[in-house]
Design a protein that fits this description.
Number of strands: 8
Shape: globular
Helix content: 40-55%
CATH topology: Rossmann fold
Order of helices and strands: HHEEEHEHHEHEHHHHEHEH
CATH superfamily: Alpha/Beta hydrolase fold, catalytic domain
CATH class: Alpha Beta
CATH architecture: 3-Layer(aba) Sandwich
Strand content: 15-25%
Largest sheet: 8 strands, mixed
């Protein structure tokens, strides 16, 4: 029964992601520009992490970290080109279990039903890897490209990873942009609380579900990573205390129509980080729609422009 619960949780998150990205404003999605850029890899403690560096070598660097089950290609060409056009170099990371980075198998998983039971009872869970491991991966890539301080931009789980870096490695963090993310505080609405109807509709329309799943694969989602990354999020638990220590200039971006991590998640993040700016976009779900992308890029560029890395 517990294993079924864990499976349902992973499927709920996967379908909610699929509905958000495949249904809302991604008509212009392309990754051909990203795919044409050289891919590099580093090995650290037996873990291979893939990354791309794009843009002027002399420019300050925005470090982009994507979310649950997603490779860096999910950012899409237009978002990345927009950041570069704003005058910044971009460092794109494939989290563990996605894209060109190390992949894990089902045999690497802890016993999921047992971990979920421990989580529900308030005990620490065992994981294949943790959010802190993924944060260290980002730091190791920054080291590999000689980046002492970066502008961290994270979406969804990538926002959680960026928050961990900003809290644990403040000396490496110039600014923080947390997009459609969360502190995972216990009082916040459960993820996907508004996704029931969408999940039922998809179950009744398998052709539509198959098309959306194919689109998600094209974007660069790795559904097999989702259960392991869900457990990593559960292991991290409520990070409110750590998030409240973040001192870097911060922009919190959330969608009014986000049904996976509802707007309260973004509001709570902004409440905890002193001096942060909260932007809530109408018509934005758990994605970055074409219609709001230019405004989001403009706001990110304004934060970065106002907080340049000081040259020693």
């Amino acid at each position: 029964m517990m294993n079924d619960s864990m499976t349902r949780l992973a499927k709920t998150l996967a379908i909610a992601l699929l509905m958000s990205y495949a249904s809302q404003g991604w008509a212009e999605y392309s990754r051909s520009y990203l795919d044409a850029q050289p891919m590099k890899r580093i090995q650290t403690a037996g873990v291979e992490i893939a990354y791309r560096v794009i843009g002027p070598a002399e420019a300050e660097t925005a470090v982009l970290v994507m979310g649950l089950g997603a490779s860096h290609t999910v950012w899409g060409d237009d978002f990345v080109r927009g950041i570069i056009a704003s005058g910044y170099r971009v460092l794109l990371i494939d989290n563990r279990d996605t894209g060109g980075s190390i992949k894990y198998t089902e045999q690497d998983n802890p016993v999921l039903w047992w971990q979920l039971l421990k989580y529900r009872l308030g005990f620490s869970v065992s994981t294949t890897y943790q959010l802190t491991d993924m944060a260290k991966d980002v730091i190791h890539v920054m080291d590999a490209v000689g980046l002492e301080k970066g502008h961290l931009v994270g979406a969804s789980m990538g926002g959680m990873i960026a928050q961990v870096i900003a809290a644990d490695y403040p000396q490496r963090t110039q600014t923080l942009v947390s997009i459609m993310s969360t502190t995972w505080a216990a009082h916040l609405p459960e993820p996907g609380r508004q996704s029931t109807d969408a999940i039922r509709d998809m179950a009744e329309n398998q052709d539509s579900a198959d098309k959306r799943a194919a689109f998600m694969k094209k974007m660069g989602f790795h559904s097999e990573a989702i259960p392991r990354q869900v457990i990593a999020i559960l292991r991290a638990g409520d990070r409110s205390e750590a998030v409240a220590t973040i001192k870097a200039p911060t922009l919190v971006i959330h969608g009014r129509d986000d049904s996976l991590l509802t707007v309260e998640h973004g509001e709570h993040t902004a409440e905890l980080i002193e001096g942060s700016k909260l932007l809530i976009f109408e018509g934005m779900g758990h994605n970055i729609p074409d219609a709001v992308r230019p405004d989001i890029i403009s706001e990110i560029a304004a934060l970065l422009d106002a907080n340049p890395v000081l040259v020693k």
